[in-house]
Specification:
Its EC number is 4.2.1.12. The chain is α/β, with parallel strands linked by helices. The protein folds into three domains: 359 residues, no CATH class; 31 residues, no CATH class; 152 residues, IlvD/EDD C-terminal domain-like (Glucose Oxidase, domain 1, 3-Layer(bba) Sandwich). Helix content is 37%, strand content 14%. The chain is built from 23 helices and 14 strands. Strands 7-8-12-11-10-9-13-14 form an eight-stranded mixed sheet. It has a four-stranded parallel sheet with strand order 2-1-3-4, with helices on both faces. A two-stranded antiparallel ribbon has the order 5-6. Strand 5 and strand 6 form a beta hairpin. Helix 4 packs across helix 11, helix 8 packs across helix 20 and helix 10 packs across helix 13. The longest helix has 30 residues. The two termini are 35 Å apart.
Length: 607
Amino acid sequence: MTTLHAEIAAVTDRVIERSKVGRAAYLDLIRRERESGNDRPKLGCANLAHAYAGTDEQREELKSGTRMNIGIVTAYNDMLSAHAPYYRYPEQMKIWALEAGATAQVAGGVPAMCDGVTQGYQGMELSLFSRDTIAMATAVSLSHRVFEGAALLGICDKIVPGLLMGALRFGHLPMVLIPGGPMRSGLPNKEKAAVRERFAEGKATREELLEAEIAAYHGKGTCTFYGTANSNQMMMEAMGLHVPGAAFANPQTKLRQELTRAAVHRLAEIGWNGDDYRPIGHVVDERAIVNAAIVLLATGGSTNHLIHVPAFARAAGIVIDWEDFDRLSRVVPLMTRVYPNGSADVNQFEDAGGPSFVIKELLRAGLMHGDALTIAKDGMAAYGRKPDIVEDALVWTEHGATSNDENIVRTVETAFSPEGGFRILKGNIGRACIKVSAVERERWIIEAPARVFSDQSEVLAAFKAGELERDVVVVVRFQGPRANGMPELHKLTPQLGVLQNRGFKVALVTDGRMSGASGKVPAAIHLSPEALGGGPIGKVRDGDIIRLDAEAGVLEALVPAEEWNAREHAAAPPPAIGTGRELFAMMRHYCDEAEKGASAMLHEAGL
């Protein structure tokens, strides 16, 4: 077996040490839950009758109480392209469960909003807390205690982390994540981005922009750029929660169908009545969390996971922080160029080798925990093989020594960069993170006057008025989780990109989030402490010189200390209402900071 890299071992030890108390309590919880045994025989007859009343074809099998009953938690809706394929999954999965000697029922549904639809509008302020809502809905779905395992149907940004957060509170159950795959390639992402920038400059009409967007987002499946949704799938492979290679098979293909069938069959095999019991609470351990962080860095994945990984780790009693990510980023090479870190989309990434090639290489080089428990029989090694249909059967094959396209995926030795794409920034403004994998090296250091805003619409108005035609650090505050739910500010990307294209030094500093599609403009995001409640970003004034230095890990307002310390904090805008935002006031009030996962639910649960 390859020796694990010393720094990865050290970071893992750091995670284990800080997690000792919480992890021990968590394992004790799921042990107690497991020891309560199969709950169905203990339920009253009226309770069981209610649980079985909705099914005809499986009632006799359910009555016997001898088969594993799989609870399906689904995020299906047909407004969200990535989740539209799930429409027929439950009825198919019930058939496949019977094939495997099990039964299956839809345990419940969870909400699944599309950030692509709400981006830049009021609904985006519900986005982050939809994750906690999904976690709670997952718990409600599994609370009936008539299931011996669960299949989680979800793909996109907040949905997978939310499903995991809820599912891990039922950690004694074996579970599998079942994705639906990306839509086929449409208009290339760089061409789409170019039209957006032309529209921002007034050089393209709304009709031209709409035509480009529809050509890019044109069918069922996840969007084809490497944002939060597709980063989710990469991490689920590395955590051993998929059937190996399930991430990027397209919807409505034989391969996709057989991978889903295999997931149901495998779930039936790892139940607690057999000799291969693999509960999700044991699969998701410290090694799995570190593996998730490693593949995120190796592929230049979404910055949103600097919030989501700490959140679902906490649900399993594990503590990981941004320092761990920063240290891992120094030794994990950037092995892919997938948009926004390159021109390829995820279908081209899959064709070039995909997640399995990346995992195979990381394991070979001792840059992942190869001994981590997974749902697959062969452990992590299985995730380094590529699935295919050969003579109508699902098989997995070994990769060659190199990828199919070295412009997209490379080996560890020939990586695009010897380091991953993440840095921590610290200074008198606070503590932030920055994704630099798509930022040209000469833009890693920006020093320019600040222009301060309290809403992204103000930034767009200033851009339109020509007020930002200079070197500028755009500071957008009161965008943190407690202020307004921490919306993504992706709608600013075209305008900031235009300014950068015109030769100006440009950066963004915010206590909000940036999209998983954040790219070429340096952005110090998730700034903590946030402005609401007295975070120092509230002291920044128009004209202050801001230094963002990703090389040295510095984020400073170059203001004399005496003057800085004497400054008053800016007044917070009043809480917004409308579009249901007022219903989430309790979550905003009780949530913790971004580095801990920006969760009210976990904070109030004492996790």
